[in-house]
Write a structure and sequence with these properties.
The protein is of the alpha/beta class. The chain folds into two domains: 91-108 and 204-484, Metal-dependent hydrolases (TIM Barrel, Alpha-Beta Barrel); 114-185, no CATH class. The chain has 22 helices and 14 strands. The strands form four sheets. The protein has a five-stranded parallel β-sheet with strand order 1-5-8-9-10. A four-stranded parallel β-sheet has the order 11-12-13-14. The chain has a three-stranded antiparallel β-sheet with strand order 3-2-4. Strand 9, helix 14 and strand 10 form a beta-alpha-beta unit. The two termini are 43 Å apart. 43% of the residues are buried. The structure holds 2-acetamido-2-deoxy-beta-D-glucopyranose (7 copies) and zinc ion. One 2-acetamido-2-deoxy-beta-D-glucopyranose is lined by residues 141, 143, 239-240.
């Protein structure tokens, strides 16, 4: 109501009697709520902004003339090669993006890196009902749980094996529409991919290298901090030694420390415990105990809790209120996946209410949020950040054309949005830049430039779980990187698009 009165008051003020003046005023008023619109740019930033806008408009025009060439409107499996030739994408990869606040343990690295790990010694494979399982064994002590065969032998005996293996390690397909007619098929493929890679990744030497590589790929993409969700599957050695949840968190922390020693500009990583939502009450009790244990052992590193899995298939947050309240009492924050659905009024949709009532610090996806105006207003005014993962929502079949993504409205209306990759390795992405690119090109206005990108980077730090001291350090590092980036852009160091700069 307050908002409405304000809007009417502004409209009355707008009426100058001159149509075109009024029109311009109305447009300015409308733009004033966009993410980033309140930022004041420095002189150099203003030049960089014009440079970016010029490129953006050219690229939009190409898509406007021939929509088949507009990446944000195409399926990511088709658009990726086009994106990779884009000057805007090139700029975004170099832009200091702050942090990555939503991604999952087994899908953190590029597929190429993970595929390379399948050439290690002692890797065995077993095919059961369409799912390929992978596991390392000591050749003298191979489990009888399945008909395990050395992967090396399969490689030698099957001509199309590499293609087959790659198809099991990701959901990328030549024809995504045919491969995944509905959301249920794509989620099935997605979950099978987790089952395939888990035995490969949780072998201790791979696990440590994998996480190190995940941080490296983020840093290569100019991201300096990450909050990783993980469900803490046991890690194993060749001799059969298992590392429990607490030890696995210890491995994450150790790798993070080692990475920070190797790259002193890297701010760090923290961990959100995110087990499967589809469990019995008893299992959830056990999760509470695990959370308490890892939280008390690693209070600076374990920052909170979430539940994962296909939300439409259950179970909703409301089924676990007693357990969640107990978790809350152990400290940390909630970062719930909520409203990752198109089913209006279903339990998955109403998860949004529980997430807010439970005082979630950020919401994963909140794809359905805008269908609930009062709740949406509360999320906005309380500064509960929405973790938007556009490519994930597209490949997991909530939306086809990303211009229709609901976060386009959140961006226009100044919601506390961060953009993150979810499971980049599973769909052929890497780092944050692909998601930032489609958000910038498909989900903001033609006239939206550097301010949006800068605010998005700032949001990714200010909505993180870093404490005040850590956050100050992260912002300081970001500022150094940002000024470097703007300098480089203004000097036209990165690309040599001289013809473009001339127009500016
Ligand atoms: C931008 O500049 C205006 C006018 O000088 C000022 O009122 C506003 O607070 C500034 N915004 C920020 C985010 O610093
Ligand atoms: C994967 O292995 C190939 C061949 O050895 C190498 O060229 C490539 O850089 C590796 N990729 C990654 C991401 O490690
Ligand atoms: C064989 O592996 C199992 C678990 O995989 C382990 O418990 C057992 O100790 C191993 N036996 C030997 C002789 O290494
Ligand atoms: C982490 O590193 C510390 C110090 O180097 C070491 O004592 C500890 O065992 C490591 N933890 C794990 C789980 O590897
Ligand atoms: C857990 O128990 C509560 C009752 O305490 C029930 O409402 C809920 O459905 C149960 N959850 C599951 C996942 O079985
Ligand atoms: C959420 O925050 C409100 C206001 O601070 C508080 O009254 C309520 O107990 C909190 N709920 C939970 C589940 O922590
Ligand atoms: C912030 O976190 C760091 C660990 O990264 C810790 O050493 C420090 O005590 C924390 N500061 C506050 C004010 O909690
Ligand atoms: Zn997620």
């Amino acid at each position: 109501m307050k908002k409405l009165i304000l809007a009417i008051a502004c409209l009355i003020n707008l009426t100058t009697g001159d149509y075109w003046t009024d029109r311009e005023k109305l447009i300015q008023l409308d733009r004033a709520s966009n993410i980033g619109s309140t930022l004041n740019l420095t002189e150099k930033e203003t030049i960089a902004d014009a440079f970016i806008l010029n490129l953006k408009k050219q690229e939009l025009q190409v898509g406007f003339n021939d929509p088949k060439k507009f990446p944000s409107a195409l399926h990511f499996f088709k658009s990726r090669p086009i994106i990779e030739t884009s000057p805007i994408f090139n700029i975004i990869t170099r832009l200091p993006k702050g942090s990555s606040l939503h991604s999952h343990d087994l899908a953190l690295t590029s597929q190429e890196y993970l595929y390379n790990q399948t050439f290690r010694e002692n890797l065995y494979a077993c095919l059961t009902d369409d799912t390929l399982l992978l596991h390392f064994f000591n050749p003298n002590n191979i489990s009888t749980s399945c008909e395990w065969t050395l992967l090396k032998d399969l490689r030698e005996n099957r001509l199309d094996f590499e293609e087959f293996l790659k198809s099991k390690m990701s959901i990328v397909r030549d024809d995504p529409v045919k491969a995944y007619p509905t959301i249920n098929e794509v989620w099935k493929g997605f979950q099978q991919t987790f089952r395939t890679v888990v035995g490969l990744i949780t072998y201790k030497p791979v696990f440590e290298g994998f996480f190190y590589q995940a941080l490296r790929e983020l840093r290569d993409d100019n991201v300096k901090y990450a909050e990783i969700r993980g469900y803490l599957p046991h890690v194993y050695d060749l001799d059969g030694r298992l590392y429990d949840e607490e030890e696995v968190v210890g491995i994450y922390e150790n790798v993070t420390r080692r990475f920070k020693e190797d790259f002193t500009d890297f701010v760090g990583a923290k961990f959100i415990y995110a087990p499967n939502r589809r469990v019995t009450n008893n299992t959830m009790e056990a999760e509470v105990q695990i959370y308490k244990k890892i939280r008390s052992a690693y209070a600076d590193f374990v920052v909170g809790f979430d539940l994962v899995g296909q939300e439409d298939k259950g179970w909703p947050l409301g089924d676990y209120i007693p357990q969640l309240l107990e978790i809350r009492s152990a400290g940390g924050h909630f970062y719930f996946h909520a409203g990752e659905t198109n089913w209006f009024g279903f339990a998955s949709d109403e998860d949004l209410f529980d997430a807010v009532l439970l005082n979630a610090t950020r919401l994963g996806h909140a794809y359905a949020l805008l269908k609930h105006p009062a709740l949406a207003e509360a999320v906005k005014s309380r500064g509960i950040a929405v973790e938007v993962c556009p490519i994930s929502n597209q490949v997991l079949k909530l939306v086809d054309d990303l211009r229709n993504h609901p976060a386009a409205v959140m961006i226009a209306d100044g919601y506390p949005v961060v953009v993150a990759p979810d499971d980049p390795g599973f769909w052929g992405a890497r780092g944050l830049s692909y998601d930032w690119y489609v958000a910038f090109m498909g989900m903001t206005s033609k006239g939206t430039g550097l301010r949006f990108l800068k605010q998005l980077a700032l949001n990714s730090i200010t909505y993180s779980s870093l404490n005040a001291t850590e956050m100050a350090g992260a912002l300081k590092q970001w500022k150094v990187d940002w000024d470097d980036f703007v300098d480089g852009l203004v000097r036209n160091e990165y690309f040599g698009y001289n013809e473009v700069l001339k127009v500016v």
